[in-house]
Specification:
Length: 203
C-alpha cells in the first residue's frame, strides 16, 4: 500500500535486468513473465512515480524478451502518456502481441490478472478488467476460452452491479461490450452450441 515502496520495487526490478544475461538470462526471463501482469496493471497506477517506474522497467525488459513488436510498443508514445485512452490503446496492442507471440503464457498471465480484481485500488481493478477482457477477446485458444469465459463474464456482471467505484463500473461496461463483439468468442460459443445440439440429437 506504500506508494514509495511500490515505485521503488518496480524500479529496482528493472535495474536487475542488467544481470539478466548469459547463464542467468532464462531464469531472469521467468521472473519477468511472473511480474509482467503487475507491471502492465500499474503502468496506469494512481501515483505518477509508480507509472514512471513501470514504464522504465518495461523498456529495460523489452530487449530481453526478444519480441520485435513489444520492443517497438514499449518505446512508443502510448506507454509514456498519462491519458486513460492512451493506456487502453497500449493494452490492446500489448495483448495482441502477447496472444500472438506468447500464447503458452496466456493462462498464467490471465490467472494473475484476474487475481488483481481484488486489489485494494479501484484503478488497478479497472485495469485488470480491461486487460483480462482484451486478452479473452483476442484469444482463439479454445482451452483459454473454456477456462475463463464464464469467470470473466461473471466478474464483469458483478462489478457492474455492485462496485462502488465509477471507474470500475465504467471499465466493466466497456469490457462487456468488447467481449460481446469479439469474433473469436462468437465463433467459440457457436461451436459449443453446435456440439451441445449434436450431443442432444445423438442421445
Amino acid at each position: 500500500m506504500n506508494v514509495k515502496m511500490r515505485a521503488d520495487a518496480f524500479a529496482a526490478f528493472g535495474a536487475l535486468s542488467n544481470y539478466g544475461i548469459g547463464a542467468h538470462k532464462d531464469a531472469f526471463l521467468e521472473q519477468i513473465h511472473a511480474t509482467l501482469p503487475r507491471l502492465i496493471l500499474h503502468l496506469h497506477d494512481d501515483d505518477l512515480a509508480v507509472r514512471y517506474a513501470c514504464r522504465n522497467t518495461l523498456k529495460r525488459f523489452a530487449p530481453l524478451m526478444e519480441i520485435e513488436g513489444l520492443l517497438a510498443l514499449f518505446d512508443s508514445h502510448r506507454i509514456n502518456s498519462d491519458h486513460r485512452s492512451a493506456y487502453e490503446d497500449f493494452v490492446r496492442d500489448f495483448t495482441r502481441q502477447f496472444v500472438q507471440h506468447l500464447s503458452s503464457r496466456v493462462d498464467t498471465f490471465m490467472a494473475s490478472t484476474i487475481q488483481a480484481l481484488n486489489a485494494p485500488w479501484p484503478i488497478i481493478q479497472a485495469n485488470a478488467i480491461y486487460v483480462s477482457s482484451s486478452i479473452l477477446s483476442l484469444s482463439d485458444d479454445p482451452n483459454i476460452l473454456a477456462l475463463y469465459h464464464a469467470q470473466v463474464f461473471g466478474m464483469l456482471v458483478g462489478k457492474m452491479s455492485r462496485s462502488a467505484d465509477a471507474v470500475v463500473r465504467a471499465r466493466s461496461s466497456l469490457a462487456f461490450s468488447l467481449l460481446l463483439k469479439s469474433t473469436n468468442l462468437i465463433s467459440w460459443r457457436a461451436a459449443r452450441l453446435d456440439q451441445a445440439d449434436s450431443a442432444r440429437k445423438g442421445s
